Each structure stands twice: as C-alpha cells, then as structure tokens.
Amino acid sequence: MAGLFATLRRPTNISSSNFQSSSVFASRLLYLLTVISVSLAVFAFVLQWRGGLPDPTTRWIFGDDPNEAGSKPVRLSSSSSSCADILGQSHTASFPYFRDWKFNFGSNLRPKISITTSTSAGLEQILPWMFYHKVIGVTNFFLFVEGKAASPNVSKVLKSIPGVRVIYRTKELEDVQAKSRIWNETWLAGFFYQPCNHELFVKQTLNMEMAIVMAREAGVDWIIHLDTDELMHPAGTSEYSLRRLLADIPEDVDMVIFPNYESSVERDDVKEPFSEVSMFKKNYDHLTKEMYFGNYKEATRGNPNYFLTYGNGKSAARVQDHLRPNGAHRWHNYMKSPKEIKLEEAAVLHYTYPKFSDLTSRRDRCGCKPTKEDVKRCFMLEFDRAAFIIASTLTEEEMLHWYREHVVWTDKTLIQKLIKKGILTRIYTPMAIVQGLKESGVFVSVIASAHRDIIQDESLSSAGNRNASRYPHITDTFPRKMGRILVEPQSTARKFVEFSKTDRQAIPPESPPGMDGIDLTHTKYLLKNSSS
Q: What phi and psi, each to the nearest 5 degrees, are found at residue 76?
C-alpha cells in the first residue's frame, strides 16, 4: 500500500512543480514587458524634449525633409515677413494640418464651386479669405490681380496654391476685353466711361465674363463673384458646407441669391476683420417688415441708409451655355430669363469699413474732388460719398472721431436691444475657422513654400529672362482661348442684341429699402411700438 500511495503521490509533486515554474516564467515575462514599455516611453519623452521627434502638427515649419530631426525653421524674406507676422502660427494648434497641406481637393467632389474676384489686396487679406472658402468647399479661384496683389512676392504665393488661377491686368488683357461683345450691348452702357466705382464696376463685369470661360474649361458647376472683404456664410446646412448647400439646389434653378449681412465693428483698432469681428447687421430679406422698419432709425444711427453700403447681396450661377454677368452682384443668360431663388438662412458676410485705415485706402484709389457734386460721379452709394469727403478734408484725429461715431458700435445697451430684436446677430463660425487656420500655420506654410520656389526660380533664370517682362509668367495664366470666345464681329453682336428678348439691365450695388414710400401712419405706429 505504501508503494501504491508513493506511486500515486509522485504525479502530484510533478504537477505542482510545473505550475510553479510557469508562474515564475509568466511573472518574469510581465516584468520584462513592463520595463521595456517604460523604457521606450522615457526614451521617446527625452527625444521629443530634446527636439528629436517633432510634433507632426508642426512639421510644416521645418525644411524640405519632414523626417530630418532638428531641422532649422524656414527663413522668410523681408518682403514677406509682415505677412508672416500677421498670418503666423500660435503655440496652440486647433487643426492638425500638416506641412504643405493646401486643400488640394480631388476632381471627383461635386459640385465644383469657383469664386472669381478682382483685387489689389495683399496676402494678409487674400490668404484668410481664400482658405476659409476652401474649408467650406470652394475648389477654384480666378483672381484678376493688380496693384499689390500683382506684385511678384504676392502673386507667386497665390499661384502656388492648387486650384488658383492668377490673371494680371496687362495691355494684352485690356486689348482682349476691349473687343468684348459687352461694349456693343446696352445692359451695362450706363456705367461706361465714368470714374472710380463705375469704372471698377465695368472692370469687374468684364473679368466675370472671362471667368465664365475659365470655369467651363475647369469643369466647374457653380460660379460666384465675391470681393476679398466678403465671406460666404452657408448657414442652414448641418456641415457648414457651401458644397452641400449648392448640391441640394434643384436642378432647374439657374441662380441662387445670397442676401448680405454687414459687419458691425465694436472697436476702432481692428487689424484682422475675419478673425476679430463677430457682430453683423441682418439683411432686410431675413427680417419681417415690422421688425425692419420698426427699428430702422436706431439701426441706422444717423447714417444715410440701414447699411453703410450695398444691401442687394451676391449670387451664385450654375455654369451653363449663354451665361453672362449682370454686373458684380448678379448673373444672367443671353437666351433665357434665369430661374432664381433666394436663400432664407445663408448669406454673404460683408466686412464694411472694418478698419479705420479703410477710409484713407478708398480715398487713395479715386482721383475725384471732395465736393458733393463731384462725388456723385464717382460713387454710387451715399455713405461712400460721405466717407470720401471726410477722408479728403479732415485731419486724422477728426477722421477717427467721425469713424467712431458712424461706423463703430460703442453703445452696449443699443447693441443688446437690437440683438434681442433680431436686427443684429453674432456669427462666430467664420472667425473660428480663420483663427484655426492661422494657429495651425497654414498661411505661413504657403508663404514659406512659395518663397523656396522663388529662390529656386531666381537661381535658374537668366538675366535676359528676368528683364523680358514685368510679369514673366503671364503666358501661364492668361486665358489663351479668350480672344476667340470674346472677340465677335460687331455686326453679329448687334444683331444678337436686337433679337434678345431677355435683356436685363446690370444690377449695381443698391442700398436696402429706406423709409421713403412707406405709409406715414403705418411708420409712426411701428416706431411707437418699437420704442415702447
């Protein structure tokens, strides 16, 4: 029996030994894995602390090789340093954008949306404007540039951005536009051969005509004309997407009207309107008549009109046969009356005189005399006329006082009242997008990348090529087919106009409805109720 029990106990001892051995092995393996994990974490922390592993959200600021540890930041030229300061990055990244990420959307995204503009602004204004619209779905930009925007340091940056086409205002361009059929038609004739705003209005219209051809060549579905002080506001879409908004438009609609809201600045020291201004005055089309006229006097604050400048919005047109511009605010069609709709929530945000310096900059672009008679020739809107006279005749201190009184909103009680009434509204999304783009370093990245390209181009170009033209790349951006499309025999254009039954006069910038023509008794009733 003892031998039997001895035989039965031996396997039990062996099993216990195996179990203890497995437990020891498992404990040592777990310990080893823990030590390795902690060591790797410490090693990674030390490398990043010493600069060996740069944060991928900040890689864009380093040299051409994103994997090169300890690369030095790209140095910007002195000519672009001011833009870099304004458009520079913050230490807090809102969006994880990578170096050289330029919103290069694929051609499969539909609908494709283009914006055309005529501008003389600098990068500090154009880049936030452009990339904001890229964020909400715009794929193509047709930029007709002159002045500062046409300078090499600015235009080189613009041309480096995917989807951007730059067209300089050269004699070649003017010769082609001089042969446009528009000059033989009547719908824009009332603005020909007049100075300042009228001249700009005609120039914008001719540029829009050329942009239509470029849009068709690029396979674009919608085209919008905007100034660089305007932002599209696709309210009413769950994604805050202009592409989503236009994709939902019925196919039989030719044009979409976006009523404009006007910025209401609260300080006289605004430097970057897109990222500093959040208060806007609503358009008449987005208010009830009772609300609009009942608060008209307080909302106007002694200015000539409810808005400082225009109030008839901007529009998007479906790119199709026979499309033509109808002034800077609308589109039309040579063969039919376009079917149009007006949106109830989406708008164009117009940043109107948001900076004190806008007074003098607008003055310097016009050579008219600062008299009441002469400014009527030069400007279409009352406030622009008054602002030109003020900027031309007063001292800087007097101008600032006038600016604070007529443009800046300082009465907090009135602001709260009009916000409660629905006249004023706060819109933060564009501000958040532009601030996020700036903080992530997108603007500086584009400038730095273009700067490197400029240095390479200069090193490869010969002296002869540099002196050949003021704008050496004009042939790359000028629409070669434009002459064939726009230049028509005058007789053909005349005959076409005679048979056109859909001719509509160009729509200029127009002020919102005023108190003129409103029934006096009804007006007094509304004003009485609004003050109670």
A: -90, 150
